[in-house]
Amino acid sequence: MTTTLRMLAAALALFGACAAFAPGPLAAVPVLPQDIEWQTNDTDPVFASPDARRGGTFRSAIMTFPLTFRTVGPDSNSSFRSAILGNQLSLIGLHPNTLNITPELATHWAFDPDKKTMYFRLNPRARWSDGVPVTADDFAFTLEFMRSKHIIAPWYNDYYTREIDRVIVYDDQTLAVVSTKAVPDLHLKLGIAPTPRHFYKALGEDFVRKYNWAVVPNTGPYQISDFRKGKYVMFKRKPDWWGNDLRFFRHRFNVDRVKFTVVRDFNILWEYFKKARIDTFAMNFPQYWHIRSKTPQIENGYIERIWFFNDTQQSAMGLWLNQDREIFQDRRLRYAFAHAMNVEKVIEQVLRGDYFRLENGFVGYGPYSNTEIRARRFDLGKVDEYMRAAGWARGPDGIWARGGKRFSVEVSYSIEEHTPRLVVLKEEAKKAGIELRLQRLDPSAAYKKVMEKKHDVAWMGWSTSLRPQYWEHFHSVNAHKPQTNNITNTDDPELDRLIDAYRNSLEADERIDLSRRIQARVHEIGPFVPTFMVPYVRQAYWRWWRLPTPPGTRVSGDLFSPFDSATGGLFWYDEARREETRQAMRERRPFPPVTRIDETYKMAFLK
Fold first, then answer.
1. Residue where one domain finishes, among candidates 532, 553, 581
2. How much is the pTM?
3. Which of 582-591's residues contact partners 24+ apart within 8 Å by CB, and which partners?
């Protein structure tokens, strides 16, 4: 197609998108560009087991009953929200092992040369749970819905206005989603989910109340079928789900029902699990894996355990130094502080050698991670070297001092279980001449203190994303002011330049190079002391639950996640093994105890 024709087609498409919302004779049908190169993915390897069988009820637990079944608006951002959203598919997904695009509601997709637009063809079989076909108009309604003031969700109002320009409907099965600006990894932004216009019809001021407990039609394999407030929520599998035979959904989502029971105490949850009232139990904490696992149910092989290593983004867990504090304005003191933290001793003594040293704040991001960076190790000699170079001397109490000021800093944290870890760091730091004053606050108070930049040192970790995010945490525009994520108040012109270039780049190779250079610069500045990472999942489960080989994907964080379209629903129920186990328990006949350790996806540098 010539440049002139392409410009004409684009103009017609834009006119059609605008006219589609106009009344009367101005309405026009948008024109789909003729030179689209449609793509799909029917070649990436499947990761479910053909041995999987349908049936059974999977019993899990939630600590509190949700305040609403809405996924937007007041009280909607609870952990239970993920169970509802896990049954709402998007246009496309990501293969958990290759990270290539995979079909979900769309069978094909294409990229426009403007680097702002993606085109999608919907699967004509796609259906809402009430049987109504999914159409392109449901994605147009997503924008109307998310921009509506009636949902009382300012973040979504802002995002779907500031980041998503429009949805162009060409016909029932063809649409385009347009970003407000060109961005890298465009598919991560534009593969949006639909919203059922036929269910909501008109949005009004009564939205929050009207839909608080509504079971909204969805597109995934399960739907809420029953619930009792304060007690449980039951999901039931759709027997004729339209996605049953899709390549990346085949042999998945196998159980008939999933029941979430409210269990408000972790110790009670453990007792429920031992009595088979709950089917699985997370055992990442060393106390459970090494000590509380010494129960007859596990030692007699009725309950099996698995230690599964994954290869995914690791939380930036560690000590975040506030550089607006005078003591941390000198880089040499930041280095000395890092070398005074005996993280390895905490791992060995408190964490039983189960955790691994986090080398920097961006581990597990594939080529975007700088694997040459190593965290500064406990080294009394280096502490002495840096402190003396900065003009400090040991005081009568052994703590470094200068001009009447001691190297004494407050460490703010919120999780009681982390106290033993910090006590060891405190004892070891004292040997290095640095005093840590531990301050445990309740989570809301700790969060408030850190976000207002009133801390010396924050002991915390951050959630992850598919690509490293730097601007929020390290750009100077977010320094020296409250309520930003630059909690170290990092203010470095060279780092700003690299971060700006990273944000503006649309080329993968350039962004990868910039990402590695940013991490090297952050390490050189020294505002963050990495501590631990847990690149695995450990779980116990009654032996009638089966897993594929390998038992999870490269990015699996829960081998018994029942819903998630990327990694969930890989397990299945074995009725014969249940009866065999029940009979053995009645006869007090043991099986050999089973602990599986799977290193299929273990990070290379940990092997």
1. 532
2. 0.88
3. 584/302, 585/302, 590/299, 590/300, 590/301, 591/300, 591/301, 591/302, 591/543
